[in-house]
Design a protein that fits this description.
The chain is of the alpha/beta class. It folds into two domains: 65 residues, Orthogonal Bundle (5,6-Dimethylbenzimidazole Phosphoribosyltransferase, Chain: A, domain 1), CATH 1.10.1610.10; 270 residues, Rossmann fold (3-Layer(aba) Sandwich), CATH 3.40.50.10210. A six-stranded parallel beta sheet has the order 3-2-1-4-5-6, sandwiched between helices. The protein is globular and about 70 Å long. It starts with a helix and ends in a 9-residue tail after the last helix.
């Protein structure tokens, strides 16, 4: 049943609408500015048209979906913070006190926090409790989770997107919380790209050189122990991934199925995006890269995805912070399309007219 639903999810993703993209580009060229002079804003506007099939789309409500899960690999001492921080930060999200809450308020976006795999019992009226299991297993000793658990987590993400689409949300961002998740993300990148861990493993929460060397060894060991199949992204996700990463794969696939833009945050979110793109290549057309993280390996991940980040602010927090900052720029691209005057409507001579 889960496999059937997953297959339907991937099969339901359609290519971007080339005709709508062309209509958007033509309209942009008629606006009171030199052609292409708004740079990436124009590229976003055309991509949004292709996603939605509308030359001048409107999006209404926006949500950043923050998936939270723990990682058994923390037993190996790969983080500067203890695993207990994951549930503590989830409650901080629920109280509205985390960076993503502050930036989402500025962007007019909803923060949706999902307990998909926190190693603890959390209760809060606004917490979306969809726990698949209490944290992954230690991937340095065996698979992080079963293939079925990975599928279940993907479907959780897709179901949440569908619920919010039904409530009028049309734009989504990926966020996460899970101590140890840069280790899992580095392992995913290493397997799917063929890059060695010394290129994919970064400092995460701020570890020193000795701990980073150890972290690389842990990633290498996890890959050697599990032997994930690089040609099977679901196998990679299950063996060396994380529940919150799998949940974000579902968010991305769900957004793409509903022709909604999904703004990709930093390193962990981009690892989820790479898995999604390998499972359903057409989903990549619905992704917008928000920023270039300071985490080593993020630039390589974006290159694998073919995404150009909108921002470079030396951030490495995660949570969806870079993605919600990018919401503001995407809103700007939408407003340019809908509100800016054309040469004809403003009575301004275009560059192609004789003087």
């Amino acid at each position: 049943m889960m496999l059937h639903r997953f297959t339907e999810l991937c099969a339901g993703i359609e290519p971007l609408d080339g005709e709508a993209e062309e209509q958007a580009r033509n309209h942009l060229d008629q606006l009171t500015k030199p052609p292409g002079s708004l740079g990436k804003l124009e590229a976003i506007a055309a991509q949004l048209a292709g996603m939605t099939g509308e030359a001048k789309p409107e999006f209404g409500k926006k949500a950043v979906i923050v998936m939270a899960g723990d990682h058994g690999v923390c037993e190996e001492g790969v983080s500067a913070f203890p695993a207990a921080v994951t549930p503590q930060m989830v409650m901080n999200f629920m109280a509205g006190g985390a960076a993503v809450n502050v930036l989402a308020r500025q962007a007019g976006a909803e923060v949706v926090c999902v307990d998909i795999g926190v190693n603890g019992d959390l209760e809060h009226p606004q917490l979306v409790s969809r726990k698949v299991r209490k944290g992954t297993a230690n991937m340095a000793k065996g698979p992080a989770m079963s293939r079925e658990e990975a599928l279940q987590a993907i479907l959780v993400g897709a179901d949440i997107v569908e619920q919010y689409v039904n409530d009028g949300y049309r734009m989504f961002a990926t966020g996460e919380m899970g101590i140890g998740n840069t280790t899992a993300s580095a392992a995913i990148l290493s397997v799917l790209s063929g890059m060695a861990p010394d290129r994919t493993v970064g400092r995460g929460t701020g570890i020193d050189d000795a701990k980073m060397a150890h972290k690389r060894e842990v990633v290498s060991k996890a890959i050697a122990v599990n032997r994930p199949n690089a040609a099977d992204a679901l196998d990679v996700l299950a063996k060396v991934g994380g529940l919150e990463i799998a949940g974000l794969v579902g968010v991305i696939l769900g957004a793409a199925k509903h022709r909604c833009p999904v703004v990709i945050d930093g390193f962990i979110s981009s690892a989820a995006a790479l898995v999604a793109a390998r499972l359903a290549p057409l989903s990549a057309g619905y992704m917008i890269g928000s920023h270039l993280s300071q985490e080593q390996g993020h630039e390589a991940l974006l290159d694998e995805l073919g995404l150009t980040p909108l921002l470079q602010l030396d951030m490495r927090l995660g949570e969806g912070t870079g993605a919600v900052l990018a919401f503001t720029l995407i809103d700007a691209a939408v407003k340019i399309m809908r509100e800016m005057a054309t040469f004809a409507s403003a009575g301004v001579s275009s560059g192609g007219e004789s003087q």
